[in-house]
Amino acid sequence: MFNALSYKSQKWIVIIGFLLIPMSLLFTFTFYPALKLVYLSFTDWDGVSPDQKWIGWNNYVEIFQNPKIFGVFVNQIPYFLVGVVQNAVALLFAVILNRKLKGRNFFRMILFLPFIMNGVAVAFMFQFVFDTTTGSLNALLDAVGLGALKTSWLGNSNIVNYSLASVGFWRFMGYNMVIYIGALQAIPGDMYEAATIDGASGSQQFWHLTLPHLTKIIELNMFLTISGALSVFDLPFILTNGGPAGASTTFVFKTVETAFQFNNYGLASAMSIVLLLITVVILGIQNQVINRKGE
């Protein structure tokens, strides 16, 4: 029967057959949950009751009017600032380790190693680093004669977010470095040779030759930095549980708390949508700024 069909009909049957299963899975596990999330954001569902009362935009109004919800974005600014420094340091190491240095592969491996470690294990490891009484960081400050700088790294509301962000710096700097190294190796060496012959210094080659070729890669790494800063959860959840006094609570942390501790799934759904929209807007602005500078 299949052989009796025309070639065009057989082609469409094969195409539909191959697309049916992946599209069904995509709709079941991606599109439907996303649409359901949008719907729930306009309800007061508690996650248990079969009743899902429609309350319109009330959840979104609550998000922007309640400083305890929207205001936690202030706690995530240190993650962004440290992320920018992280990219600069990663680029510096990439430029250095892209040269013909003895043992460069070893140093690349050492710097990349933290990225492949489990995030929860990293958090628990730094719990001992930041411990006020027996932590290795305070012990190091004592050993080098800087004991006056000892403090409660996770108990001081002024620096707790910078302390947590430094963990991300240590973990992801090597990953960004590897991306930059890959981009640097794609730049033709003849261009540097020509620039050297023309008398360009190392700094001139970096600013006028290297950086313009890294625009798209910088955009990619800044995308990862911004999206990571907006979606921080594991570090404050494990190390501080949002403390002290909510100083390290992030928006994702607040969303999870709203859903699973206070059983307000409607508000939590709206918070998820707001986070998505804010991420899209910020990344869109970043894309425009970087592309304009690249031109």
From TrEMBL:
Q: This protein's superkingdom? A: Bacteria
Q: What residue ranges are annotated as transmembrane?
A: 12-35, 77-97, 109-130, 159-183, 220-239, 265-285
Q: How does it sit in the membrane?
A: Multi-pass membrane protein
Task: Return the InterPro entries for the record.
Answer: ABC_transporter_permease, MetI-like, MetI-like_sf
Q: Cite the ABC transmembrane type-1 domain residue spans from the record.
A: 72-286
Tell me which PROSITE patterns the record gives. ABC_TM1
In which family does this protein belong, per the annotation?
A: Belongs to the binding-protein-dependent transport system permease family.
Q: Where in the cell is it found?
A: Cell membrane
Q: Which PANTHER family match?
A: ABC TRANSPORTER PERMEASE PROTEIN, INNER MEMBRANE ABC TRANSPORTER PERMEASE PROTEIN YCJO
Q: What is this protein called?
A: Carbohydrate ABC transporter permease
Keyword terms: Cell membrane, Membrane, Transmembrane, Transmembrane helix, Transport
